Amino acid sequence: MNRESDSKRGVKSDETLFALIELLRERDGAGVTELARAAGVAKSTVHGHLTSMRDHGFVVKRGQTYHLGLQFFDYGQYVRGRLDIFRAGMFAADRLERETGEMSWLITHQGGKAMYVYGRGGENDIDVNKLLGTWAHMHCNSGGKAILAHLPEDEVNRIVDTHGLPARTDDTITDRDELNEELARIREQGYALNQSEDLAGIHAIGVPLRFEGEVQGALSVAGPAHRLSKERCEGEILDRLRAATNEIDVSLAYR
Amino acid sequence: MNRESDSKRGVKSDETLFALIELLRERDGAGVTELARAAGVAKSTVHGHLTSMRDHGFVVKRGQTYHLGLQFFDYGQYVRGRLDIFRAGMFAADRLERETGEMSWLITHQGGKAMYVYGRGGENDIDVNKLLGTWAHMHCNSGGKAILAHLPEDEVNRIVDTHGLPARTDDTITDRDELNEELARIREQGYALNQSEDLAGIHAIGVPLRFEGEVQGALSVAGPAHRLSKERCEGEILDRLRAATNEIDVSLAYR
DNA sequence: CCCTTTGTTCGGTGACATCGAACGCGCTCC
DNA sequence: GGAGCGCGTTCGATGTCACCGAACAAAGGG
C-alpha cells in the first residue's frame, strides 16, 4: 500500500523483513509495537520475523527493545574481504595516506551507487569511520566520477535515470550534458577532480581501477581545499596515484 | 526436513532466506540451480528470494551467478558504529598497539559468542582483517574469558550448554569445572591470560570492559608466545591495559 | 495498587510462497 | 550447424503458512 511498485516478482514476506531491518537502523533499535505501527503490519507478524532474525544473530534483544546484531558486521566483513579491489588496494591506500598526509579512499560501485570500501585517516580517523561502508551518489565525488567515466554509456544513463543528479553543493554537476562532458574529459586525462562538489571545502582527486576491461572501482585522495589545490592534485598527488594504481593492477593480475 | 527444529515460532520463509544467504557465503557466490539443490527448494523459490534481495542490495548478479552485496557491509558498519565499546575503545586500542608493538583487540559478545570488533595490526594488518568481524568461542581466548568471568553464573552455564567447550589446541580448557576455577581466578586478579589455548604459539592477555555493572566487552593484546611471556603480560602490558581501560571507562561514562 | 502499555501466544483464514512444468537462451559436442 | 543439455527466468495452480486480531502476561508509572 505504501510502496506503489508491487509489480516485481519478489517475495513479499522478505520485503517486510527488509523494511523491519531498515526501521531498526533508522531508529537505532525499536520495540515490537513501534515497529508494527511503522511498518503497517500486525505485532505478531513483527514478532515472528524478529524471532527468526534473532535465531540467526541478525537481531539482538536488549531489555524490551530489539537492535540489529553483529551478524551484519560478520557478513559485511566477508563481503568486503571478497572484493578484489579491497585485497589488492589496501596497502596502496595505506601508503598513499602516509605519503600525502591526506585521506585516501578505496571506492567501488554496486547498483549504480558508490561505496567507500576502505579509507585511511589523514588527520583523524573519526571521519573515516563515518564514511566507511556508506553509499554515495557517483556524480559528485572524484572516485565515483572516475568509475562513471569508464562505464558503458547506456549504464551511465540508467544510473542517472535511477538516482538522478541531486545537488550536494552549489558546485555539484546537476546537468546531464555537463556530466557527459566532464566524463569525456576524465576519460581523456585519466583522472577525476572534485572541487567542493560533494562537501563544501573538500577537494579530491580520483583515478579508476580497471581490470579485464572493466572498472572495478577507484582510488582517491581527499582533503581540505586549501591543501588540495588543483596544482597539487594534478602534480604530486596524481603521480602517487598513478604509482599506486600501477601497483594495484599488478596485484590484480597476479592475484 | 534437513533442519530438525521447526518448533520455533519464527517465519519459515525467512529461514530459507537466511539459508540462501549462508550458502552464498560458503560458496563465494552461486547460481540459482545450485542454490535450489543445496537448499532443497524449487528454483523459482530461490529466484524469488534473490530478486527481493537484489532490490535491496543484499545480493548482486555477476553474469549468471549471484553474490552477497555490499549492503551487508553498510549495515555491518552501522552495527559496529553503534557499539559503545567500539566508539569509546578505538583510540585506546590504537595506542595500545603502538606502545606494545603487538596486536590489540576490542572484543564484544552476542548470543554467547565473542566477536572481534576492532583490531590493530602489530606486525601485519593481514591477520587483523582475517579475524575482524568473525565469531569466536569465548572459553579459549583472553577477551572471551574476561567477559565470561563477569557474566552471571547462569548465563555462563547457558553459553557452555549451547556452544560447548571445543578443544582448539591441547591447552584449551575443555572441562566445565576447570573453566569455573579459571573464571574465579580471572575475577580475582582482574585479567585473563591465554597461553596457546586458541592457536598454538599465540599468547594473549585481556581485561574486561565494564559499564553500569555489565560487561560490555574486553580489550586484549595478542602476539607470538616468545614475545608475550607471562612476565611481560602481567607486567608492562597489564599496566598499559589498565590505563587504557581506565580511559575507556571515563569515555563511556561521559559519552 | 490499579491501569496502561509492553512483548508474547494462539487459532482461523485467505493471501501468497512454493512447486513443477514450460520457455528462451547460450553453450558444447558431435 | 543443429541437436541437446544446462542455465536463469516466467507462469499458473495449489495448499501451506504468513498474517491478522484477540487474548494473555509482565512491566512500569501514576
UniProtKB/TrEMBL annotation, chains A, B:
GO biological process, one term: negative regulation of DNA-templated transcription
Organism taxonomic ancestry: Archaea, Methanobacteriati, Methanobacteriota, Stenosarchaea group, Halobacteria
GO molecular function, one term: DNA-binding transcription factor activity
Pfam family, one: HTH_IclR
Keywords associated with the record: DNA-binding, Transcription, Transcription regulation
InterPro entries per the UniProt record, alphabetical: ArsR-like_HTH, GAF-like_dom_sf, HTH_MetabolicPath_Reg, Tscrpt_reg_IclR_C, Tscrpt_reg_IclR_N, WH-like_DNA-bd_sf, WH_DNA-bd_sf
UniProt KW Nucleotide-binding keyword: no
Name this polypeptide is given: Transcriptional regulator, IclR family
Span of domain IclR-ED: 71-254
Keyword rRNA-binding: no
